[in-house]
Structure formats: C-alpha cells, structure tokens
Predict the 3D structure of the following.
Amino acid sequence: MTLMLALGFGAVIGVLLGLLGGGGSILAVPVLVFALEMGMEQAIPISLIVVGAASAMGAIPKLRAKQVEWRLAGVFAATGIPATFAGSAVGLLLPESVLLAGFAAVMIAAGARTLADRGSTGTACSTAGSGINWRRCAPRAIPAGLAVGFMTGLFGVGGGFLIIPVLVLMLGIEMSVAVGTSLVIIVANSAAGLVSHLSGTSVDWAITAAFAGTAIVGSVLAGHFGTRVNTARLQHWFAYLVFAVAAYVLVDAFFLR
C-alpha cells in the first residue's frame, strides 16, 4: 500500500513540477510525512532526491530549446549551495514540530506567490549586446539565491515558488526561460542538500525509487505537453491545495504532536 501511494503521489508531484517550474515540490515533504508516515529526517532527503531528479528530467526540453539563463543559474547555485548546508545544520537543531510549523509558513508564502499575477516582467537585467547588467542584477539575485538555498537545506523544498518570481518580476526574465533556469537551480541546490542530509540518515530506497520514478515520468510528460494546459487556472487550484495542506500541517504541529 505504501509503495502504491508513493507511485501515485510521485506522479502528481512530477506533473506539477513540470507544469509550474518547481512549485509542485512544495507538496513532497507533506506527502512523505503524512501520507507515507515518515519523520522529517527521512522525508527531507527523499524529497530532495525526488525533486532534484524530476527537475533534471523536466529541464531537458528547456535545455534543448536553449531556455536557460546560465549566468543567473550560476549565481543562484554559487550562493545557494553554501546556504543549503547552513539550512541543514540549523534543521538538525530544531524540534520536528518547529520544522513543520516553519514548513507550513513556507507553504502559505508559496500559495500566496502562486496566486499573484505573473503576467508582467520586471526591469530586464540583460542589455543589448553586453549580456547581464550585474550592477543591477546582483543585489537582487544574491539574496534570493541565499534564501532559496537555506530553505532547500532546512525543509527539503526546491524553491521554485521563489526563484521564478525573482527571475520574472525582479530580473525581467521571460517566463519560459525562468522555468528552465529555475529547474537547473533546483537540481544544483537539491544535490547539495542531499549531501548535507545523508550522513546518519537511513533512506528507504524502494519508496524513493517509486516516488522519484513516477515523478520523473510525470515531469517529462508535463514538460512536453504543458502548452496544452491552462496553467493560470492550474496555478490557482494548486495554491488553494497548498493552503489546505499548510493548515493541516499547522494543526498537526501544534495540536497532534
């Protein structure tokens, strides 16, 4: 039964990941903790494996279409990877109920961000013929990279819900390129987070393989066929689902533990 649940939930998360550029990963840890009855110390590394693998496969169509801004991805990874290790270290010091409450707060922020209008872009960082304007972009990209990395290590989330708004609204990157860039950043941060969490933690590899396998398939299919889906409507329903799950996580953290 547990294996079947892992297969089903993995597929759903993979599809959301491929369609939304990372937002679906916010549900991985709650699924592992509440549906598959794991502790946070097990759920976080498995979530990072699933999110990283699905993001890597979902990024392939974007790489082929050259829809990745590699320089900004490099900035996010360079700042995010050290912050990931810091987040992992902090997480080891916190009780599970506190981690769950913090995770619920992140989910609420992710849902609110998903509901926000993404139809416009901010001031572009690139200038014609001269590449990235780092004086304009660095003060925005570096703090965002640190925040995403820290959350990845602390909660096992990919951070696409934060990366994409920063790329689109603050840095002026087109949505199609922002999604591809987000997936690349998630892969780098997830790999670093996994390394920081694996020592002393036992991983159920059968559940991980089932979860990751269907997530990868779902992410790839969504990446290829996502243009046929009304993503604006999907984002709204996804946000409401995230709010509902966050409410349950808060109830569990404060009243059931």
Summary: The chain is about 80% helix and 0% strand. The two ends are 25 Å apart (CA to CA). The mean pLDDT is 81. Residues 2-256 form one domain.
